[in-house]
Amino acid sequence: MNEFAEQPGLPGKVWFVGAGPGDPELITVKGQALLARAGAVLFAGSLVSEAVTRWAPEHCEIRDSKDMTLEEMSAWLQWQASRHATVVRLQTGDPSLYGALIELIQPLDQAGISIGVVPGVSSAMASAAAATESLTLPEVTQTVILTRVEGRTPMPEGESLAALASHHSTLCIFLSITLLGKVCRELRAAGWAEDAPIVVVQKASWPGEEKVVRGTIATIQALCREQQIHSQAMIIASPTLGARHWDQLIRSKLYDPAFTHRFRKASAIPDNGVSVPFADQITLKAE
Ligand code: SAH
Questions:
Q1: PROSITE patterns this protein is in (predicted)?
Q2: Which of 174, 180, 206, 236 to mutate to test the pocket of ligand 1 (most atoms within 8 A of CB)?
């Protein structure tokens, strides 16, 4: 039996599936398979519509949730679960981030309907990919903070952007492009320099629509205004940005020829950080 087959005659199962950031091909294989056998799909507005139309079967009942309240969505999912073995709630990116996941699951739990969650490629990851950036670099930062600035949703105590930015690690800032001025002010308040790099990615992974804007705290607002970026954008602030063009990179220990780990023995003498091309393919004798 296939691992997500439901038992006939029993109420259906509601799957919360990450649709990925926009490109329909960035849904997971498991998410695509669930969509392909779904009797009903509730999807989140224009953000994921193409994934639905591309992968859901013709007879599937498809409903856009953009004009629905949480109660209506929950009632719809429960009703569909009484009629279909597989019901899919398609969420943008990964369902665990800013997706009202728990609010939707609690009423299903109360109704005794089983649920499953399938992760998705978050827009934070798709934005890093679009800009060819690494969010972590050895000895630069090893930490990524996924956050937003305070808008209508208040930030909990201790989570102001200025407080989080004081770590000088990577910040992936969701839901905040209309508050870019505030983002910059809070970064400054945390001691980030005017020329600290910022990348804004709009519609990461959307075929033909993706925009990558590179600037600094001093310039990014004007650049985004010029490019008319007002929605569906990720703000990445990080000391790693632009590393593709750096002359001096501190190498990752994992691939360092002088570093032994579980899967590979050191094959070169430590070289004080100076990289030796193909050093792990030559055998050096220790003196
Ligand atoms: N669960 C989603 C986030 C939903 S909140 C995820 O994991 O990506 C919506 C916010 O996500 C938007 O305001 C924007 O900041 C970001 N976002 C969603 N899709 C995006 C995309 N394709 N490119 C850039 N940012 C995106």
A1: SUMT_1, SUMT_2
A2: 174
